[in-house]
Design brief:
With 431 residues, the chain is of the alpha/beta class. Helix content is 37%, strand content 13%. Strands 1-7-6-5-4-2-3 form a seven-stranded mixed beta sheet, with helices on both faces. A five-stranded mixed beta sheet has the order 8-9-12-11-10. The termini are far apart. The structure holds pyridoxal-5'-phosphate.
Length: 431
């Protein structure tokens, strides 16, 4: 029954786990162990040869973490998932799993700042070029493509612009060319399932809404199982040529018997093995706990954010409010097409008083926490011009959508009257 359910409310409570067969424990146990004893020499040899899947060593996989992986894969409609130490590790692995030095990836310009740095600097130093394309114009992805392009990359609901990415449009450009679309869905779990719209891989920072309580850093990669890695062998050499690091395995073929999970398997047995950014089982437990209430939390985040938008709209001290619910034209069409579960918990707004007003506003908040994070149960705020974006030139700030008076809110689950009261008094102080 739980296995067959397509309802997120049921999946988050049941997928991947049913009472422990030896103890009867209902909550998933934390398997705090590095290693797993093999049943026999033959069993060990089958595991290493990938003839069967099983536990070897927690850097490669762990039973607590596997429950989280199964649960997130089920929630997204994917074939398999790989949990990682952080969202950053998930973004890095998503690219390193299919591109090597000399290759390139085309990414949307609208990215979390950490991903931007990873793409523009660190991957570049490793020889992987990331070309940036305009998410407002899906055809710009095609124009940036050449023979060495291995993937397209974007965020479903990127902040600060909060303009929803044209997932199906860009996925449709890539598929005939053999190019998978990787979507970072961190800001929109449950609101959007990128795989349903043609994405091939989903990335999460589970640190945010999946965990939901600001306790643990983690990430996950979900293999949609919906991409044919063999169809264009020249396009995806890492999946179609023998891998010297794994006895000459050809990944599009090597694990066919285990399902359409070539991408997930390669990420696990090559990248986790070699780079080691594994999620700790304790954090996996925290994320499992968080996920159980995700279908209750997301609608409340969305409803509170809508009420905040209503409050901010039309105020004399607020120059502009940024939220998918009040966008117009093609932006609004995309928001309605892809965010079928609600517009999310992030709200941006610009203070008429600019940088100084932004600083005063942040310092005057009493309920909202002043942090760089998003997706906590508590309400959070940041003034990018004096923190994350303080080193940018005015032109760069404009390109990222951050102006001097811009404030980002991650609206939490508190009573809406308390949220509004805090905003109201901080706005009064900011002047
Ligand atoms: N992707 C997005 C959209 C994010 O907002 C973040 C973190 O803020 C990350 C990735 C990176 O995740 P982590 O902080 O878990 O490494």
């Amino acid at each position: 029954m739980a296995k067959k359910s397509r309802h997120p409310e049921t999946i988050v409570l049941h997928a991947g786990w049913r009472a422990d067969p030896t103890t009867g424990a209902v909550a998933p146990p934390i398997y705090q162990t590095t290693s797993f004893q093999f049943q026999s020499a033959e069993h060990a040899s089958n595991l290493f040869a990938l003839k069967e899947l099983g536990n070897i060593y927690t850097r490669l996989g762990n039973p607590t973490t596997a429950i989280l992986e199964d649960r997130i894969a089920a929630l997204e409609g994917g074939a398999a998932a790989v949990a990682l130490a952080s969202g950053q590790a998930a973004s890095a692995f998503s690219i390193q799993n299919l591109a090597r030095a000399g290759d390139n990836v085309v990414s949307s310009t609208d990215l979390y700042g950490g991903t931007w740095n990873l793409f523009a600097n660190t991957l570049k130093d490793l020889g992987i070029e990331v070309r940036f394309a305009d998410p407002a114009d899906p055809e710009s992805f095609r124009r940036a493509t050449d023979d060495r392009t291995r993937a397209y990359y974007a965020e479903t609901l990127p902040n600060p612009k909060l303009a929803v990415f044209p997932i199906a449009e860009v996925a449709a450009i890539g598929r005939p060319l053999g190019i998978p679309l990787i979507m970072d869905n961190t800001a929109a779990p449950l609101l959007c399932r990128p795989l349903d719209h043609g994405a091939a891989v989903v990335v999460y920072s589970t640190t945010k809404y999946i965990g939901g309580h600001g306790t643990s850093i983690g990430g996950v990669l979900i293999d949609g199982g919906n991409f044919d890695w063999e169809a264009n062998p020249e396009r995806q050499p890492l999946f179609n040529t023998p891998d010297p690091s794994y006895h000459g395995a050809v990944w599009s073929n090597a694990v066919k018997g285990l399902g359409p999970i070539a991408y997930a398997i390669r990420a696990r047995v090559v990248l986790l093995r070699d780079l080691g950014a594994a999620m700790s089982p304790f954090n996996a437990f925290q994320f499992l706990q968080g996920m159980e209430t995700l279908p209750l939390r997301m609608p409340r985040h969305c409803a509170n954010a809508l009420a905040v938008v209503e409050f901010l709209k039309g105020r004399k001290d607020v120059a502009q409010v940024i939220h998918p619910s009040i966008q117009t034209g093609v932006k609004r069409e995309r928001a309605d097409k892809y965010l079928s579960g609600g517009y999310g918990g992030l709200v941006g707004f610009e203070l008429v008083g600019g940088r100084e007003a932004g600083r005063k506003f942040i310092d005057a908040l009493e309920l909202f926490y002043h942090v760089a994070n998003i997706g906590d149960a508590r309400s959070l705020a940041i003034h990018p011009a004096s923190t994350t974006h303080s080193q940018l030139t005015p032109e760069e700030q404009l390109a990222t959508g951050v102006t001097d008076g811009y404030v980002r809110l991650s609206v939490g689950l508190e009573h809406i009257e308390d949220i509004i009261a805090d905003l109201e008094s901080a706005l009064a102080t900011a002047g």
